[in-house]
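Encode chain A's predicted structure.
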Amino acid sequence: MEEKFKSGFVGLIGRTNVGKSTFINSVLRQKVVIITDKCQTTRNRINCIYNSLNSQIIFVDCPGFFKPKDLLGKKLNKVVGDVIKDSDVLLAMVDVAGGIGSGDFYVLEQIKNIKKPKILLLNKIDKIGEKKLDSERKKIAHLDQFEKIISISAKTGKNLDICIEETKNLLPEGPKYFNDDIISDQPIEKLVSDIVREKLALNLMQELPHSIGVKVKKYQEGETKSGEDIINISCDIYTEKKSQKAIVIGKSGRMLKKVGMEARKELENLFECKIYLGLWVKIAQNWTKNEALLKELGY
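Encoded structure for chain A:
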């Protein structure tokens, strides 16, 4: 008897920095979403498509739950709420290496009464031993809302095959939503801006990335005089204060040059051609609280 085709949307839910984006990249075996150790790295919902012979799983990466401080924060939390509402299956993730805490239980409480299949992923087991894992498991022993609880390492790939199989079992029968050659529905401009923002977040101090926005102003494909493919890209980097602008630029422009070089190298690897990347830093006071500017930046 022929196995029926299963498909659906799987929301990946958790507080910030539990490893959701690393999970996506490991499952798809290539970089699809940006990764840093900074809060709010993922700011939009991103459909990431995993194909197998008899299934298509659309993993939906989204921002982590956190207490919002401004309009941007409220918008990010709304994105998470929409993902929960629209998904067929929910994967909740916690970081057992860092320890399951109040932030994790807050997230789990938000989906407790959602009448959808749910799996709890205990991530980062590569960083701890069995004794620590047993201790963390006892913290969630009282939870009865999950079909499965699976210990994984998104970084090393341990038990991801089990997670995929269990997720597939919970999906409904359905159509193929995306062609096999599509791994993400991110617009190119959004991917470019995310890569630039990732390099900024990795190079700058802890509190600054939340106040940085990136918008692609120009994306133009062409050829060099020698006939090589080249893409000309210009990005505006928005900060909220003059002092932040100075930090982003750095002494004698060194920080901006470093960020630009790292972003350009990754973009060249991604698009397999030469990239010209121009970065311009602008001040937009309180942009994280400004509805018009947030829309302009894609939020």
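The CA atoms of residues 56 and 176 lie 6 Å apart.
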